[in-house]
Design goal:
The chain folds into four domains: 94 residues, Alpha Horseshoe (Serine Threonine Protein Phosphatase 5, Tetratricopeptide repeat), CATH 1.25.40; 169 residues, P-loop containing nucleotide triphosphate hydrolases (Rossmann fold); 175 residues, no CATH class; 104 residues. The protein is built from 30 helices and ten strands. A five-stranded parallel beta sheet has the order 4-5-6-3-7, sandwiched between helices. Helix 4 crosses helix 29 and helix 16 runs antiparallel to helix 17. The longest helix is centred in the middle third of the chain and has 19 residues. This is Tetratricopeptide repeat protein. InterPro entries: AAA_16 (IPR041664), NLR-like (IPR053137), P-loop_NTPase (IPR027417), TPR-like_helical_dom_sf (IPR011990).
């Protein structure tokens, strides 16, 4: 297909492969069903954005009078089109300010409140697509954005611009502003954007209004302690404690939570301050004595506060809370699904039987908080986690990291299958990377990398290709210095990166990366190693789309024959490769491939794997396409009808793989002269593709070309 850019994209007679202008390639594979989701599970990939995360809202909001007045005015009726940035060191209360503004906007100013964690690219994208869903985006549009078939940021901001109700959008924890630079940060007359970040550099925030959130003034800091722990001391005593804590809101919250929950032998603020002066206390607090300065290390300001809380929990019969907090410090500061903790072993740290009580202790002391993003989670402040991790005894760190890996291992599928979008997979991504980044032992690094690769595969097989690419590429970069470039798992992470690049249409990059991995695997593991054969299969994919069949097809045949020998004829990977080759062959080669089958490939897949297996379902569409290519139209029409019915049942009416099946069925009907049903079917496909992908998308354009062709033939008959 030639375009005005002078670039050429390759497509066979069925129009399966298209290329947009510029350097974006877009591929539609009939055999792949992983980008669809069942109707009953549509919501599984959508997180809640109507509730703030980042911990508890402040009980009473103190100080920040001028700032709050300014931000209240920003969300009052008739205001919009502005971006506000709250910047300051970790623990200074930026998120608390955002909480308070969020409550005002939703409770007083009659705005829709939307809260997104912007800590990394995958988390930001998932949250922003949930915003689009909240503002009316259809599932097909969201799925296309996750698959990389349309610009996700454009979809989100189009929906925000068209919102029927004014909104406040909070982008929390944007400590790496680079993640916002791919079109995510914009303004709209329909709403106000509020960002929290540690980065104050003005070049990140052009056209935004910046506000520094510093530690609290002495009087306000004292009042916070009195709010949280009334009757434990005078305002003067509270001021003295607050000053020792550098007036950092996070440290004040931890101290107040401690004082408020001493029941049997209540502590006074004076006693608390004396313990700050105890062993290790003076050194830790003095390091943070410059707490009024944003340059102070806020981790030092909270170290003694959480240790006192853990000591108190131990005295109350909950020593396991220490182990649980250290375990949480192995993960990241993003929401952590509670389901992980249900997998604690009976002899773990803490043991499963004591996990509930240990968690309640941490919640009571404000050391962690419950959040609900569509999945029940716990979330702990990043400054606190960093402080705890830094103070964990070296001898315990490795065993805790191993336990953390084991908990993730229990919820990440060993062999991920195609299926609906899964919010759990997206939530686990930052924590898999955090485990890798914090690992100090090679065995833990290897286990964490294995988890990250499997999780990337799981994301890939739900059609979340961008998340899969980001996780796999980041994991490889983190693990390679520790494990070496020739480690099998490092090569697996790079291979998965290449496969995601292919799905994103970045064929040149995918080919170069997979080719390097193939060379390394063949040299290190031999020509018949399953990983080597996997690279043969993977390299075939971009080569086919770039029109280099003479290189691609021998690689695919090598994968088929090698998998037959090594894995067996009935292995899912063997059958997947056999289905794939039906899409690429034509003429005598395809005739020979079909005629050599003792039974049709879908029936053979079913005999090995069952009727409902992924590979059986995928092979049906590939086989139907082969029949159509060969001109065996009656058989193709019968198969296509069954395939469409199966895909509608399995994946729903409005998903890409169902559109592919319907498009093929319509072409078969048209070739048979059944133009009216062909027109009806292609009309539906064209309209739904335009809705989800846009009028200019190559899939939409091709569907309309077929539709016009069918109508012209009907008119001339």
């Amino acid at each position: 297909m030639n375009g005005g850019s002078g670039m050429e994209g390759r497509a066979d007679s069925q129009g399966r492969v298209y290329q947009a202008s510029g350097d974006q390639h877009i591929t539609e594979h009939h055999h792949h069903g992983g980008s669809a989701s069942s109707p009953s599970a549509q919501s599984s990939g959508i997180e809640s954005v109507r509730r703030p995360t980042g911990g508890r809202a402040p009980v009473v909001f103190r100080d920040r009078t001028e700032l709050m007045a300014r931000l209240h005015a920003a969300v009052d009726a008739g205001r919009g089109g502005h971006v506000y940035v709250l910047h300051g060191m970790g623990g200074s209360g930026k998120t608390a300010v955002a909480h308070a503004v969020f409550q005002y906007a939703t409770g007083v100013a009659d705005r829709v409140g939307l809260w997104v964690n912007a800590s990394d690219r995958a988390t930001l994208r998932g949250g922003m697509l949930a915003v689009a869903a909240d503002r009316g985006a259809e599932e097909g549009e969201l799925l296309a954005a996750r698959n990389g078939l349309r610009a996700a940021a454009d979809l989100v901001w189009d929906r925000l611009d068209q919102s029927g109700h004014p909104w406040l959008l909070v982008l929390d924890n944007a400590d790496d502003p680079a993640v916002l630079q791919d079109g995510w940060l914009r303004s709209s007359p329909r709403g106000t954007v509020l960002i929290t970040t540690r980065q104050a550099a003005a070049h990140w925030w052009s056209d935004a209004e910046l506000h520094h959130v510093d530690v609290l003034p002495s009087d306000a800091a004292a009042q916070v302690l009195c709010d949280l722990a009334p009757q434990t001391g005078t305002v003067e005593e509270a001021r003295s404690v607050a000053d020792r804590l550098g007036r950092l809101p996070l440290a004040l919250t931890l101290a107040g939570g401690f004082l408020a929950h001493q029941v049997i032998e209540p502590w006074t603020m004076t006693k608390y301050e004396q313990h700050l002066d105890g062993p290790q206390g003076v050194e830790l607090i003095d390091k943070g004595a410059a707490g009024a300065s944003p340059l102070a290390d806020s981790r030092n300001l909270v170290s003694r506060t959480w240790q006192l809380s853990l000591d108190a929990l131990a005295e109350q019969g909950l020593p396991e809370s220490t182990g649980l907090l250290r375990l949480l410090a192995c993960y990241g500061a993003d929401p952590l699904p509670l389901s992980l903790l249900s997998g604690l072993p009976d002899d773990g740290e803490p043991p499963r039987a004591r996990a509930e009580a240990a968690l309640r202790g941490l919640l009571d002391q404000s050391l962690t908080a419950m959040v609900d993003v569509g999945v029940r989670c716990v979330q702990t402040h990043g400054v606190l986690l960093a402080s705890v991790a830094a103070n964990t005894p070296a001898g315990q760190a490795t065993s805790l990291a191993a336990t953390a890996c084991g908990l993730l291992d229990a919820v990440v599928p060993a062999v991920p299958e195609r299926g609906p979008q899964n919010l759990l997979f997206r939530l686990l991504g930052p924590h898999a990377l955090a485990l890798l980044q914090g690992a100090t032992d090679a065995s833990v690094t290897a286990n964490a990398l294995d988890l990250a690769v499997r999780l990337a595969i799981a994301q890939h097989r739900t059609g979340d290709y961008l998340s899969a690419y980001e996780l796999a590429s980041s994991a490889a970069a983190v693990a390679e210095p520790e494990l070496g470039p020739e480690h099998r798992l490092v090569l697996s992470a790079k291979s998965r990166t290449g496969r995601a690049l292919f799905r994103l249409g970045r064929f040149d990059e995918a080919e170069a990366l997979i080719r390097r991995v193939l060379a390394d695997r063949e040299r290190l593991f031999g020509p018949d190693d399953p990983d080597t054969l996997d690279s043969c299969y993977g390299l075939n994919l971009p080569l086919q789309q770039m029109g280099r069949e003479s290189e691609a097809t021998p690689l695919l045949r090598r994968a088929i024959e090698g998998r037959r020998r090594v894995l067996g004829p009935g292995h899912p990977l063997t059958l997947r490769a056999r289905a794939a080759i039906l899409e690429y062959l034509s003429g005598p080669d395809l005739v020979a491939e079909i005629d050599e089958m003792t039974v049709p490939l879908p029936r053979e897949c079913a005999s090995y794997l069952g009727e409902d297996h992924d590979e059986t379902v995928g092979s049906r569409l590939s086989y139907t396409l082969a029949l159509f290519t060969l001109g065996r139209l009656e058989a193709a029409a019968e198969e296509a009808s069954l395939v469409v019915e199966e895909f509608e049942r399995r994946f729903g009416l409005d998903f890409p793989v169902t559109f592919s099946a319907k498009s093929l069925h319509a072409q078969i009907l048209a070739r048979l002269g059944q133009l009216r049903p062909a027109i009806d079917m292609m009309t539906y496909v064209a309209e739904r593709r335009e809705s989800s992908l846009g009028a200019g998308h190559p899939y939409t354009v091709k569907s309309k070309e077929y539709l016009n062709e069918f109508r012209a033939r009907l008119g001339s008959s």
